[in-house]
Design brief:
There is one protein chain. By secondary structure, the protein is mainly alpha-helical. The chain has two domains: 35 residues; 209 residues, MetI-like (MetI-like fold), CATH 1.10.3720.10. It is built from 14 helices and no strands. The protein is globular.
Length: 285
Amino acid sequence: MQLTPARRPVSLYRFRAFFTYSILVLVTFVLAIPVIWLILTSLKTESEYISEGLQILPVVAQWDNYLRAVTMIDFAKYARNSLVLATVTSTLTVITSAMAGYAFARIPAPGRVKLFSIVVGLILIPASIYIIPQFVLFSNLRVTNSYWPWILWGFSASPFHIFLFRQFFQAFPQELEEAAEVDGANILRIFVQIVLPNSYAVIATSFILNFLGVWGDWLMPLLYLTDKNTTLAVKLINSYVNPQGYPLVTPTLAASVLYILPPIAMFFVVQKYIMQGMVTSGLKG
């Protein structure tokens, strides 16, 4: 039966939609395979993990691995350390980056364009380049073995997040600021009472990206913190061992599953704002 010209575009649209969603589902499944494998392996016994051959599903789900994950180490303490460190650093970075981004977007000053070019150029410098001089600097300041390095990083802002905020503020309606200025508001009041309350999208984006960066980092805590005040990321590396000193893989994987839950939960809470921030930050500038 031959389709009429009126129905042919509808059928073509449905086919394209089906094809597009099929590709999206396939890509999503492929990207989720490591996480699925992590969860399934965390429910296995050690003997099932080291057995030869491909065994996808555990014979019997070993939920005790999760109990061992939170009892073999002081899981709550190190999780609290990670949460405090990530939250404080992210909050400070968002505040300072927003202020710098707004200044670059709205305050005319000699050499502003050149300074912003330097900030953007700093994004391109790999972190491995300045690890050693940074460590020497913090050692001379005697702030190692504490959370002060993260506080200083927060106060110094982030080049990428300055860029993110600047691009967002460039697209912000300037009429609102001009109206507030006519009413006698100074620039700080405009920024706090007008701009920030209408910038939830970019604030949420910046906060979650900063939070994930600190939460998932293990190198800097390994360099600057002691075992008492270190983060959960460091403790997951080699803390789960049997009495003979051999690593216990399945409790480690169970702890890893618990470790990724807070960022995932935070993302689902603020995902709408993150998507808006990513889209609107490049509209103008």
